[in-house]
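Bug #77: duplicate submission created two jobs. Keeping one. Sequence:
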Amino acid sequence: MASSGGAHPARVTDSRKRAGTALRALVAAVGLGIVAYLVRDAGPARVLHVLWQAGPWLPIILALEIAQFASDYAAIRKILASQWIAIPLGTRVRSASLAYAMMVLLPAGRAAGEIARATLLSKNIGVSRAAAAGVQLQAAFLFANAVLSFGAWVVVQSSFGAGSVLALLLLGNVLFQAFLSAALIGILWDARLGRWLDGMRIRFVRAQTASVPLDPGFRRRIPWDAAVICSIGRVAQLVQYGVIVHAVGGVATVRGAFVGHGIRLVGNTLGDLLPSQVGVVDGAYRAFAATLGFADAPARALSIAFVARIAQLVCASACIVVAALTRTATRTEEVKYTEQ
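Kept job's structure:
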């Protein structure tokens, strides 16, 4: 029997998916175009020379990137508390690896990564609890960003004035990140969250799985411990950017670390819809080259973003390999868990 009217739901969904894919591809192309323009403007040879110069510092930069990865792992473990032991080791490692890789490689990467993490963890602790833990981790992460943005604002406004563009952007970032963190905690305290989390089942898992009832005490626990751990991870990133600024030819100072990291935090917020914030973060470093002390060497300012991205891509590639290697082990552990 022919449809009485209107587009078929499956066709509408396919059209939306294609439109979304095309839009993401367009946005990514624009970001890459911006990067190409910035490199051409700064001089490709100069940029390559700076990157080569920074090479010896890459092991330290990678170690500090791994420290950030470890802080997320420790934070979600602290949030889940006693529930953590219900999750097989292979699932823990695979969920952390996939979450990091997606955070680096996909648009709105943090949200995509948390969904991937919750998808894997939900098979052992239930969809509702895994999703709530992901929201708590996101709130803790945003709180840490607000704290480090505030520290950068203090340094920048004391050096360049409260009315400077970077100081104003950092202050806006402090307020924005703090607002989002508080909003997520507020959602967790809302009694309607249980119904909302059950609705997330479709996004998290394809098959119908039983959901563990959400413990109100767990849901309403403010993740202060996780926020401290995430803040330590952000401090590792602060040190990392101090090293990167020095690696590309800058002077190793506390102010340089805060300024370099502050630009990254602002760029992350403004370019969240782009994979690795391609184009936006690069443009931010180019725009604030003088603030970094690179007014006459834009290639050095631009290279900060490139060096950081190289470290992220190396770690993301390693995480993809780890996720692939642990896939079989994870399935075996899930079968044993189900049989129990």
